[in-house]
Every structure is written in structure tokens, then in C-alpha cells.
Amino acid sequence: MSATPLAAFDSIAASYDDQWTCTTAGVLQREAVWRRVDPLIERGHRVLDLGCGTGEDAVHFARLGASVLALDISSGMVARAREKGANAHVMRAEDVGKMQGAFGPISFDFILANFGVLNCVRDLSRLREPLSRLVRPNGHLAICLMGRFCLWESGYYWFQRKFRKAARRWFGETQASLGLKVYYPLVRQVRDALTPDFDLCTDTGIGVCVPPSFVPALPDGLLRAFGRIDQRIAGAKVARVVADHRLLVFRRRQAGGEG
């Protein structure tokens, strides 16, 4: 039986930063996301961090001068985010349409769902309408999803002769190690789910050479060299396809569907 996202993420909240956020690989992958999205955020902008985890992104955007609201399904994650100073609250990503009732009339210049938050949502098309109401016209929505074909993951498990794990993303859904059902939509499926309210602006590979969290620690110097390579190749089509994550940045269309 699948675990609930709440139980799964509560169980790792206390150790998440040590296991991923503060590791060299975790820092490099997150910085790769920031390099792409920071230019979209101006001082005074309203930002929503959807699935905020321990609040690393929310705190970073606040330092840029944005007014940040952070949401997560896990009360444990929210508690850690608040400890860092984030304005964090408990809410499922699927319930984002209820924000107007919970927080009053509100809209955002930028929304981020980072590092696989929406991989736990089976039907992304159900989020199109609530997200389109929350993002102002010409505002941006950035979704960082686990990709379907991760070269690091497949190679790592293949050499361990764990062939089922090596191929677990390829078929579009799997049971993850935390007991969660996880989905791996193709980029065209995500784009179609958000049409006609959003236009895809950029598609970037995150973690092409920098490995996923489960790969045993590599020397920092080697990881940072991988990070520099990623900066150069992350926009290339082949690199995007084999990356650990894909960062999709969408622009909200103006009223009436005009670009």
C-alpha cells in the first residue's frame, strides 16, 4: 500500500537538509535552478513556493527582496522552514485552488514548484485553472520535475545489477523508496496540461553531470567540476533528456489568451 505524502515527508523532515539540501550535489542542483529563475524575481514581487520543503528556496527569494509565501503538505517540513524564517503554512499542492479562501484575494508574480513536488500529482491538468488564477498575466510558473530518463540513476543501478530500479522512471510511474506513487510526465504532457493558460519559455536540465541524492558522496572538487559542465550544457536537448530534473519555466498568458 502506498504511503501518504504527508507521512512520507514528515518522516524525513528532520534529516532532509543533511541528506540533500546541504550536500554539495544538493547545493549545486539548487543553485542551477536559482540561476535560471532569479532574473524573473524583482524586489517587491509576490512569490509562492509550492512544496517548500525545509524552506531553502523561500528564504533565498526573500533575500532577493520578494514577499514569499511557502506551502508544503508536511507539517514537519513547514516547521523546519519556519525555523529558517520562512512564512510557511501547511497545504497540499493539489489544494492550491483553495488559497483564495485560506489567504484572501491573492496573486503572484512568480510560482516555483521545485525538485519533484509535482511528480506526486497524477493529473497536472487539474492544477491549470487554479494556477492560472494565482499567477498574474505575464507572470511566471517554474516547475522542476524529476525527468523520465536520468542517466545517472539508470547507470548507477544498472552497474549494481538492480535492473528494475535502473528502469523505474522509464514507464512514467513507479513506487518510490518512501512508499509514494511517483509520476514522470514528458515535457509535452506538462505543456499540454497547462495549455492554453501558460506558454513554455525555457526547458533546462538540472543535474546532468551532478548526480542525484542517492549516489554516494563524490569528491567536492569533482562535483563542482560537474557543476561547471552543467552550466554549459544544461540547455542542450540531449542534456535535458538525461538530467535528474528538468526545469520548465512557463509564462502566464494575458487575459483572452493573447501572448
Structural summary, described in words:
- With 259 residues, this protein is an alpha/beta fold.
- The chain has one domain (5-147, 183-257): 3-Layer(aba) Sandwich (Rossmann fold), CATH 3.40.50.150.
- It has 12 helices and 9 strands.
- Strand 4 (108-113), helix 7 (125-134) and strand 5 form a beta-alpha-beta unit.
- Helix 3 runs parallel beside helix 11 and helix 7 (125-134) crosses helix 10.
- The model has no long low-confidence stretch (mean pLDDT 93).
* Helical fraction: 25-40%
What is the count of β-strands? 9
Task: Report the sheet with the most strands, covering strand number, pairing sense and barrel closure.
Answer: 7 strands, mixed
* CATH fold label: Rossmann fold
The residue ranges in which pLDDT falls below 50 over 5 or more consecutive positions are none
What distance separates the N and C termini? Answer: 45 Å
- Percent range for β-strand residues: 15-25%
CATH C-level: Alpha Beta
Shape: globular
Strand order of the largest sheet: 3-2-1-4-5-9-8
Overall radius of gyration: 17 Å
